[in-house]
Amino acid sequence: MLKQQLVESLRLRVLNIPRPPNTETDSKTRVAVLFSGGLDCTVLARLCHEILGPDQGIDLLNVGFENPRVVAQLKKDSNGEVGNFYEACPDRMTGRKSFAELQKVCPGRAFRFVAVNVPYSEMQAHRRQVVSLLIPHNTEMDLSIGCALYFAARGQGWCTGGTEMDDCTPVSYTSPARVLLSGLGADELFGGYSRHPSAFQRQGYAGLIDELLLDVGRLGKRNLGRDDRVMAHWSKEVRFPYLDERLVRWAIETPAWEKCDFENSEEATGVEAGKRVLRLLAIELGMEGVAKEKKRAIQFGARTAKMESGKVKGTTLIS
């Protein structure tokens, strides 16, 4: 049932996207996915393969940052030889692994992995712009998340992929896609945060349901306006398939134990309890590796968090 709901949601959001006016070439890539390689976004990319025409490309935008604190530690640990620190970002490693799995289960589809590498100096040059777009949001966590989405939406990076499995030479690339897909909402609907099993342990399914409803209810205030503003700066439109009204209604009406069965452990079922319904869908779609991916916040996966000081809290106001 979840697959049917997601497919219908995606159809509304990825089919019949017009070519931008005044473009010289008719690009076959109209859609890009904000792609960490995690469960939520990879399922979207996989289902897009079933919906879009065979000649259409799908760009996978994966962002990684030069975090001075992390780079300094890498130098210390390796006697000054850092290597490619972008490729050491957690989301970059997960992204490449999930990209390979998509290529395997979707032969012939022109998936393009776009490695968006952001030097610290470039992030600093755009910082004031990002802060202005965040308003009225004004915390360090908002800035960390906003920077990651801002540069991912720009879509400039190094591309590998296409229709050939051995096409792995990176080339400079700017994604022509004007429509971006976000996996936002899956954690809130299907129990993907660590606070969800905690709520279940305290108050059982009644407490879990209250926590899920609280999360869904504050998505607009916490996330949607902020995320839309930082990405719209580049004249891109972000769409949220998991937040389709019919899908949200179905998810809320579905019993909590069918979505995230915290009563039965991973050892007992073979599948992690958080977002279990989505993990089972990933397995059904042939992506067993993706089904096992753990939740990771974008600011830590892309390494935008705690760039200057490890003591800064996410709730600290932007200085």
Polypeptide structure, described:
Pfam families: Asn_synthase. This is Asparagine synthase. One of its GO terms (molecular function) is asparagine synthase (glutamine-hydrolyzing) activity. InterPro entries: Asn_synthase, Asn_synthetase_domain, Rossmann-like_a/b/a_fold. Residues 177-205, 208-305 form the Asparagine synthetase domain. By secondary structure, the chain is of the alpha/beta class. The protein has a single domain (2-16, 28-301), classed as Rossmann fold, CATH 3.40.50.620. It has 15 helices and seven strands. The protein has helices at 2-14, 39-51, 68-77, 90-105, 120-134, 140-154, 186-190, 195-217, 219-232, 245-253, 256-259, 266-269, 276-284, 288-291, 298-301; strands at residues 29-34, 57-65, 111-118, 156-162, 171-174, 179-181, 237-239. Strands 5-4-3-2-1-6-7 form a seven-stranded mixed beta sheet. β1 (29-34), α2 and β2 form a beta-alpha-beta unit. α1 (2-14) packs antiparallel against α10 (245-253), α5 (120-134) packs across α6 and α6 packs across α9. The longest helix is centred in the middle third of the chain and has 23 residues, at 195-217. It is globular, with a radius of gyration of 19 Å. The protein starts with a helix and ends in an 18-residue tail after the last helix. The model has no long low-confidence stretch (mean pLDDT 90).
